[in-house]
Design brief:
alpha/beta; six-stranded parallel sheet; three-stranded antiparallel sheet; 10 helices; binds nicotinamide-adenine-dinucleotide
Length: 315
């Protein structure tokens, strides 16, 4: 599979590394406004290929995206300590206006995967600017947040995160919804398993895990300036689900006609992914509290998406 990555910064270059070392992509094209940076990253990455697969990595131009099955968009401003993802909106809408039409022209059949923040809103912006069908415009969404949730649940229970089925849906950001009511491991609900293992989910434990998931990026950014390994793993997983036509269910962000009464909004729900991009969406069974949190998340996403779409028409 040939993959294009726009933005060869921390997220773009780490994602390229994950794709080539796992053999998910055989060709990677890196594009960055800073050409010297793209070339340097491409060279460094190419030197890892003898230890992985017969991959090709190169720095390129938009014309080089021709034939890409997937184009990942990471180009954009990233959060500074204290900034929310929503604070990046104005800057990243401008960047998308310059890059998305060029991708659409060079690779009209590609599937776009949007990861620049605020990721759900930028997915809506990319949908509008590309003119692609909604099945082929996918935000990395809460795939990463779900991994964070499973990791912390696994650590608490003493079970591999891979064996835990639990999901984060809604916004990739402050209003995301941790679905506690529907998690399980080894056929047993998470609550019951926690009781059986003598590690109950007390309100304090739940609050700690919620904080560890919801505020993970803020803490990592405070410590090292950016997050990139987790998202690179998530993007690699999404690419392999598409490339291998897996029909895997991942919590990616896509455009929905109605989420809890909010019309035309991008956010994450469990989504069946394969060669055509989105094949189906699973509307989750939630309790009343989670349903109301999902409605609030959808309202926030809708409010900011409308603002972002207005910004496009003003330019
Ligand atoms: P970074 O600053 O390291 O890299 C961004 C790159 O984009 C830079 O190399 C820059 O030169 C390039 N760029 C800027 N404008 C461009 C343009 N018009 N055309 C081409 N390239 C351009 O930032 P990063 O840490 O890699 O983060 C990138 C984005 O990903 C940010 O918006 C960040 O918030 C987001 N992010 C999202 C997630 C997620 O889960 N969705 C996780 C981490 C980071």
């Amino acid at each position: 599979m040939k993959v294009g990555i726009i933005g060869a910064g921390s997220v773009g270059s780490t994602t390229a590394f994950a794709l080539i070392m796992k053999g998910v992509a055989r060709k990677v094209v890196l594009i960055d406004a800073n050409q010297a940076k793209a070339e340097a990253e491409a060279s460094d990455l190419a030197h890892a290929t003898p230890f992985a697969y017969a991959n090709k990595v190169k720095a390129g131009t938009y014309e080089d995206l021709k034939g890409c099955e997937i184009v990942i968009v990471t180009a954009g401003a990233n959060q500074k300590p204290g900034e929310t993802r929503i604070d990046l909106l104005g800057r990243n809408v401008k960047i998308f206006e310059s890059i998305i039409p060029q991708i659409a022209k060079a690779a009209p059949d590609t599937t776009l995967i949007i990861t620049a923040n605020p990721a759900d809103i930028m997915t809506e912006v990319a949908l509008k600017l590309s003119g692609f069908p909604k099945e082929r415009v996918i935000g990395s969404g809460t795939v990463l947040d779900t991994a964070r949730f499973r990791t912390l649940l696994g650590y608490h229970l003493g079970v591999s995160p891979q064996s835990i089925h639990a999901n984060v849906i809604g916004e990739h950001g402050d209003s995301e919804v941790l679905v506690w009511s529907a998690g399980d491991a080894g056929t047993v609900s998470l609550d019951k398993l926690a009781e059986e293992f003598g590690k109950p989910f007390t309100p304090e434990v739940k609050a700690q895990i919620d904080d560890g998931v919801r505020n993970a990026a803020y803490k990592i950014i405070d410590g090292k300036g950016a997050t990139f390994y987790g998202i690179a793993g998530a993007l690699c997983r999404i690419c392999s689900a598409i490339s291998n036509n897996e029909y895997a269910i991942l919590n990616v962000s896509t455009h929905h006609e109605d989420v809890e009464g909010v019309k035309n909004v991008c956010l994450s729900l469990p989504t069946v992914l394969g060669k055509r991009g989105v094949h189906n969406v699973v509307y989750p069974v939630l309790n009343d509290e989670e349903r109301s949190k999902l409605a609030s998340s959808a309202k926030v996403m809708k409010e900011f998406s409308d603002k972002a779409l207005e910004m496009i028409s003003q330019n």
